[in-house]
Write a structure and sequence with these properties.
4-stranded antiparallel β-sheet, repeat, WD40/YVTN_repeat-like_dom_sf, WD40_rpt, cell projection, 2 domains, Cilia- and flagella-associated protein 251
Length: about 200
């Protein structure tokens, strides 16, 4: 560590700041952003003073607090020119780097979001954006604390039906303690049962 910056004080941002859950740099800038357990984002940047111009400042300080979710933000990632967040209320939201909301996926109905991963598709951001193009981002999957993995596409945002905006369930795991395993006597398969009441057959 080159230096240490103390936690953001409530007086600087005019309100209390919750526990930080994740932090990442915003590409193409000298700024970083942290997510909190209160659903806020804290933007960090260089702050110039009379004694020290911005180009000579190395320490980043909290400069902005923005509400992004109504519950804890449990994961965040950057894809191209977009910031994508997943919240404990089960919503995925997509923002520009200046925190303007671009799209939201609130009908997934899969539980608190714990991780988001995007497909590799460099052509998505290769051409200039077109206003009539709609949301431009690769397909992605989300993991949840209910042991679900759900596949999503950008086109889901344009759907009117809540069912069409739920994505495709890829994996349903045990979301409670596993209490029984049994191997098939002849086939390469086994069954598992859990306290959630779920019986699964795996191959």
């Amino acid at each position: 560590l080159a230096h240490y910056a103390p936690p953001p004080a409530a007086g600087v941002l005019k309100q209390r700041v919750g526990a930080l859950t994740t932090t990442l740099f915003l590409p193409g800038s000298d700024r970083a952003i942290s997510m909190t357990a209160d659903g806020d984002s804290v933007l960090w940047g260089k702050v110039a003073t009379l004694e020290l111009p911005e180009m000579e400042v190395s320490e980043r300080r909290a400069i902005k607090l923005v509400k992004l979710h109504s519950a804890a933000i449990q994961c965040a990632t950057v894809i191209g020119n977009l910031l994508v967040t997943g919240g404990a209320e089960g919503h995925v939201r997509i923002f520009t780097h200046d925190l303007r909301v671009v799209a939201w996926f609130e009908e997934l109905d899969a539980g608190p979001i714990t991780d988001i991963s995007f497909a590799y598709d460099p052509q998505i951001f290769a051409s200039p954006p077109d206003k009539i193009d709609g949301l431009r981002c690769p397909d992605f999957v989300v993991g949840t604390s209910h042991s679900l993995i759900v596949a999503c596409t950008a086109s889901m945002f344009d759907e009117f039906s809540p069912e069409a905006r739920r994505g495709t369930l890829l994996v349903q795991g045990q979301d409670a303690a596993v209490h029984g395993l049994a191997a098939h006597p002849k086939l390469p398969r086994f069954a598992s049962t859990g306290h959630s009441g779920l019986l699964q057959l795996w191959d």
